[in-house]
Design brief:
The chain is mainly α. Helix 3 packs across helix 6.
Length: 204
């Protein structure tokens, strides 16, 4: 029981550390939460998609990556380049005098449009595959028979994060609407992504 709880806690912590970076997907969930529009659908899509991708990684894709050193090298270079590029974009946003999360004057739009946008941001984002399938799958493979318990912890982390982000966003809406606050967040994201990208490239 202790080993299972440890594995689940490790999965929860690892999953949360990979999910919390403010990217396009998180910003979209946050915006929908602030507007209180299609929040349940958006949160459900993000959490369910993560669960499917984590299961794919834990079920074997991550283990294949670990077993084949060439794949690890390729993932390191590709993932590192992506993170460095993402970090550079976040740094550029942080250095701009404007910005912020603006919601006033936006058309509410349809639930269908929100769902399609959320699906695109989730399944067309290579960072999602790097985090959930390759990185989490690789770490889970080291857990041996407890890899599914580790994966369950990561799935729970995703569910908790998106639920808190979507339904708790209204509380932070006034603060995050300020350009200075959003620039600080982008600055933190930029630093995190650049460091992670450099570590991946160096490790490859």
């Amino acid at each position: 029981m202790t080993a299972s709880l440890t594995a689940a806690a490790a999965g929860f912590g690892t999953g949360l550390s990979l999910i919390v970076a403010i990217g396009a997907q998180n910003a979209f969930v946050l915006r929908q939460g602030i507007r209180r529009h299609a929040v349940l659908a958006v949160v459900g899509i993000c959490a369910l998609s993560d669960a499917l991708l984590i299961a794919l990684g834990v079920g074997g894709v991550g283990a294949v990556v670990v077993a084949w050193p060439g794949a690890l090298t390729a993932v390191g270079w590709i993932g590192g380049a992506f993170l460095l590029g993402y970090g550079a974009l976040a740094a550029r946003r942080a250095c701009r005098p404007g910005g912020g999360l603006h919601t006033e004057g936006e058309a509410e739009g349809s639930v269908r449009r929100a769902v399609l946008t959320c699906l695109a941001m989730t399944w067309l984002n290579p960072h999602v595959y790097l985090d959930t399938v390759f990185l989490l799958g690789s770490v889970a493979a080291d857990r041996g028979p407890l890899r599914w318990t580790f994966g369950l912890g990561a799935v729970l982390a995703s569910l908790c994060w998106f639920t808190a982000l979507g339904f708790g966003a209204r509380l932070l809406g006034r603060f995050l609407a300020r350009p200075a606050a959003w620039r600080v967040l982008d600055g933190l994201v930029a630093a995190t992504m650049i460091v992670m990208g450099l570590l991946l490239v160096i490790g490859a």
